């Protein structure tokens, strides 16, 4: 007996069906047009249009023009719904040559005319592609631009009054970047990833509404940092900074700061250490800190007390005296509850002679040691001896051989714990 299958999805109202199609890759959304007459033109009313690698995978020289015409009709036809998101990926650049000449600027303008809220462009070259109207659009809430080597120069009338998220990647900026930032009055999320600044004396970020700030530069390259960094963002919740030491730092008090990731190097003089210390002073209210350094970069004597810090992750790229520096830093975090250490070989430190930080005695509940090696037994013994209320000790032995793991486990079993509640977890995957 034949079963009758009811098509419940097709009975949904068209706005719901279009919303469902918006989650599909554009290819799959178009393919639904063969399902029935009701589905034939639904894909043209989707509110999210993304041309990513999967969308471009089937292109050949013979059908590239068809693809171009399809995108033109999809974006520029009249009576279209408002757009939520428009995205182009790097793959489209490989087909945008002299023979095909995609109208990317026109596509962006068409998306703007449809009141698009999010634009995400991952394009290798943006020369003569970005229309000036992009930077005066009132509907934009999110703008992400990834353009390898592009030098931005923003128009004088730039204004993005409703923009909340602004991300740049792989680009260069001059003074006009300040004109853009100062005219984004409700900006909450700002990121510069693998970017660089030229002919600029100050990176000036003064945005009261800002909640998330990422300044993630390439510290592996030799470049001039002839600028000072000024940040006035009293409502900042998350801050990430990856770079060498700039000429100076001025950070306003960030009373709302929850989490910070700081990766910094290049302190080869006392002056640069002092300058770098100004950076860490500005985040003294942070609750969770991830710190990556390759030398004694901050002068402990000038650091404030981090009363709010309860989570600390320390990644050391190897410098002499790092264990002493770490223990001195722990004296500045009296209320620390979670400590995560990722260190190279630890050897030569007289752990039993070190003064005990108060956080170790009264507040520390979890310690995790990544990349454990057999030279760290004395350090582990120090923590177990003095962590009075420790609840969890996690030790990752991934880097050890089978023989070393067996030896380390036997050594750990012989260590005395001051906290009777402490559970030791050994990870050997």
TrEMBL record:
Domain F-box: 6-54
CDD domains (UniProt xref): F-box_AtFBL13-like
Signal sequence region: none
UniProt superkingdom: Eukaryota
InterPro entries, per the entry: F-box-like_dom_sf (IPR036047), F-box_AtFBL13-like (IPR053781), F-box_dom (IPR001810), FBD (IPR006566), FBL13/AtMIF1-like (IPR050232), LRR_At1g61320_AtMIF1 (IPR055357), LRR_dom_sf (IPR032675)
Protein name listed in UniProt: F-box domain-containing protein
Originating organism: Gossypium stocksii
